[in-house]
């Protein structure tokens, strides 16, 4: 049997998933198709990593609910799973920190796989690369003052890599072009075009739910049921964390003597 | 069993609760189209239309009907009606108010939308008359719509019955302007006697289109424009293209529909060539010398 030369990959998506929507899951499908079409990669798995409550974003539902909904949504997926590590950390975790954790975990799991002769199969010799899956707005978020540390962005795109799905790759290409840092690592940034315009954002879904409007066919039925059972996403829930500064902005504010791992 | 809790919430939020009771008209939404295949966008249109109409406090949407077009429509890439019907049924299996109707697809010839609307309207009132007693308006099977005004006034006499409204995207509304695609009297009947619920799409301005047409403007109160804030352009064309190229269409249509498509390998390069050299049925009909009945 011919051994494939494709590089194995795992895609990681970080975000609020507040709640998870069909569009979130679509990103994985689009990214996988795109990477497979290059002929160079084999996507082995996908990870949805909901942010912890410590993120402090307005309207953020409890992590236990967001995790539960993501699991319901991905219940029938054969390759994408939900990971709760990030949401279980006591404080908000930098994205690059989450990536390091998963990268090490994947490597460890690889090390435990042995065939009957005690050898690792050829394919597993190459450790799957972990890449961050995101939308176009993510690239632009690098520009927001105080949201990202330069050295983190450097590690994110340099060491790991991005798979960025957007409606028009022109917008993403410009974002890469306008940043020296991103431009330097452009070979590690995969731009995927989503031709179907689909603006099913979680914000819009929450808005519709608050107003008693239907979100059927935008979000899986199982997630809709869960939302109604637990009465998530009301006018009150949207006011949670109102006036609070986003945690990364606080944690990463320029302070002398602070180390990377604070 | 999925309980639709949102409808309970909506009743509480009704602007008329506790105030003077306004007459609420029952509405059935009818969507005609290829449904080749049905997608989440089609299904979403029903949800949006229902929310919009319920929100006015004047309507109660009781049913939605999906009526796939017959094979005689001869659209390029149109696969057999039997498949399109089954996929629509699978897609609406877990909906408690949207149903699929095969009457249109079973007709040997392509049918004008107005005829389909008329058929379903008559069915609706036949059900209604079995419950109620008086119907002073006589309507025979063969209906002539040359006299627009008499037709419309006959319908207005039956104001207290359920209304049938045609559900469509803005592209259908704008197709009214395509030469030879629609008969003017059909458009008049649909918007005059019944109603249109039009879901906006990016790049179109339904209000402007209605404003620029005297015929449409005359009945603008029967045309409900629904703004889709969550832009969702999952077109069936795009889905077919993705399938042809072996790309994933997961989360664009219901899973059971995807399974159905994949098991039978529907939608290939060959299937897309079907009817490639044939003229669309309505264009064939109206560009010929003789007029249709």
Automatic annotation (TrEMBL), chain A:
It is found in: Mitochondrion. Gene3D superfamilies: HUPs (3.40.50.620). Pathway: Cofactor biosynthesis; NAD(+) biosynthesis; deamido-NAD(+) from nicotinate D-ribonucleotide: step 1/1; Cofactor biosynthesis; NAD(+) biosynthesis; NAD(+) from nicotinamide D-ribonucleotide: step 1/1. It comes from the Eukaryota. Keywords: ATP-binding, Mitochondrion, NAD, Nucleotide-binding, Nucleotidyltransferase, Pyridine nucleotide biosynthesis, Transferase. The keyword Ion transport does not apply. GO terms for biological process: NAD+ biosynthetic process. Its cofactor is Mg(2+). One of its GO terms (cellular component) is mitochondrial matrix. GO terms for molecular function: ATP binding; nicotinamide-nucleotide adenylyltransferase activity; nicotinate-nucleotide adenylyltransferase activity. The keyword Nucleotide-binding applies. It is an enzyme of class 2 (transferase). Belongs to the eukaryotic NMN adenylyltransferase family. NCBIfam families: nicotinate (nicotinamide) nucleotide adenylyltransferase. This is Nicotinamide-nucleotide adenylyltransferase. It comes from Oryzias latipes (Japanese rice fish).
